[in-house]
Design brief:
Helix content: 40-55%
CATH architecture: Alpha-Beta Barrel
Pfam families: F_bP_aldolase
CATH class: Alpha Beta
Low-confidence stretches: none
Shape: globular
Bound molecules: glyceraldehyde-3-phosphate, zinc ion
Number of helices: 11
Strand order of the largest sheet: 1-2-3-4-5-6-7-8
Protein name: Fructose-bisphosphate aldolase
Largest sheet: 8 strands, parallel, barrel
Binding site for Zn(2+) 1: 85, 183, 211
GO biological process, one term: carbohydrate metabolic process
Number of domains: 1
Binding site for Zn(2+) 2: 106, 136
Mean pLDDT: 95
Length: 278
C-alpha cells in the first residue's frame, strides 16, 4: 500500500464523511506504533513530523523523515508523510526533496495581513513543488509549552468570513481552525465550539483540520468529525501512552523491554483514536 499523499487521503476521507488521523512522530517507535495501529484499524493514516521534532533531532530532518518514510512504505495501509507546524522557510524548502507530500505552514501567531502574506508565499512555493499545504488562522493555543490562550481572547477563535477570505487569498488546500482545542493537554477534558465549527464548515470550502486533539474525549472527537473536521492532529496522547509504559517497565539496562511496552501502548492508543474518527 505504502506512501500516499496526505491531500489524497484527506480528500477520500472528506468524500466518505470521515477524518484522517495525523499523528506526530518523535521517535522511530512512534512511527512503528502508528502504522501498527492503523493496520489493525484497517484505515489510512498520516505520520507527521513537526518543526519541534526536527529541532529535537538537532535540526536534521532526514534521519527521522527517512525512518518514517520507510515505515510508511512497508505499511499494509496507505500512509501519508506530512511536515507539521513549519515556521522556518529553510525547513519548508527541504520538504519536497525529503519525501513529504504535504506541509502545514504555521504563521498563525502573526497579525492577519502578515499571516496571509507569509502563507500565500509558502502556498505558491508548495504548489510549484507538488505539495499540498495546510495553514492556520485563529491560533490554537498551547504550542511550545505556552499557556493555553484565553478562549475569549481575540485570535483564539477562527472567524468564518475571515477564514473564507484567507483561504481564497492564500490558495491553501486545508485550514486548521481554532474552535476550542488546545495543544499538549494530558487530560481529555476539553470541549469544542460546535456552533462555530458548523459555521466554518458551511463557509470554508477546503477541508478543516483540528489541532490539539489529545485533549478531547471520544464524544467530542466524533462530534468534530460529524461537524466537518477532515484531518485530526494527535501528538500528546501518544506521548502520554509512551511515557506511562516506560515508567512502568523501566528496569535493567536493556532498553528493548520498555521500548517494546511503549510501542505497544502507543499502537493501542492510535488504533483506539482512529476508530473514533471512523
Ligand atoms: O499539530 C499537532 C497537533 O496539533 C497535536 O496536538 O499534542 O495536543 O494532540 P496534541
Ligand atoms: Zn498542532
Amino acid at each position: 500500500m505504502s506512501l500516499a499523499p496526505a491531500g489524497v487521503l484527506v480528500a477520500e476521507a472528506a468524500a466518505a464523511g470521515r477524518a484522517v488521523a495525523a499523528f506526530n512522530v518523535i521517535t522511530l517507535e512512534h512511527a512503528e506504533a502508528v502504522v501498527e495501529g492503523a493496520e489493525r484499524a484497517g484505515t489510512p493514516v498520516i505520520l507527521q513530523l513537526s518543526e519541534n521534532a526536527v529541532k529535537f533531532r538537532g535540526g536534521a530532518l532526514l534521519p527521522i523523515s527517512r525512518a518514517a518514510a520507510a515505515c510508511a512504505e512497508a505499511a499494509r495501509v496507505p500512509v501519508g508523510l506530512h511536515l507539521d507546524h513549519v515556521k522556518s522557510p529553510d525547513l519548508l524548502r527541504q520538504a519536497a526533496d525529503a519525501g513529504f507530500g504535504s506541509v502545514m505552514y504555521d504563521a498563525a501567531h502573526l497579525p492577519y495581513a502578515e499571516n496571509l502574506e507569509a502563507t500565500r508565499s509558502a502556498a505558491d512555493w508548495a504548489h510549484a513543488n507538488g505539495l499540498w499545504i495546510e495553514a492556520e488562522l485563529g491560533e490554537v493555543g498551547g504550542k511550545n509549552g505556552a499557556a493555553p490562550l484565553d478562549p475569549h481572547a481575540p485570535g483564539a477563535r477562527t472567524d468564518p468570513d475571515e477564514a473564507r477570505r484567507f483561504v481564497a487569498d492564500s490558495g491553501v488546500d486545508a485550514l486548521a481552525v481554532a474552535i476550542g482545542s488546545t495543544h499538549a493537554m494530558t487530560s481529555r477534558t476539553a470541549s469544542l465550539d460546535h456552533a462555530l465549527l458548523a459555521r466554518l464548515a458551511k463557509t470554508v470550502d477546503v477541508p478543516l483540520v483540528l489541532h490539539g486533539s489529545s485533549g478531547l474525549p471520544d464524544a467530542e472527537l466524533a462530534a468534530a468529525v460529524a461537524g466537518g473536521i477532515r484531518k485530526v492532529n494527535i501528538g500528546t496522547a501518544l506521548n502520554v501512552a509512551m511515557t506511562e509504559a516506560i515508567r512502568t517497565h523501566l528496569t535493567g539496562a536493556d532498553p528493548r523491554p520498555y521500548l517494546t511496552a511503549a510501542r505497544t501502548a502507543m499502537a493501542a492508543t492510535a488504533e483506539a483514536m482512529i476508530a473514533v474518527l471512523n
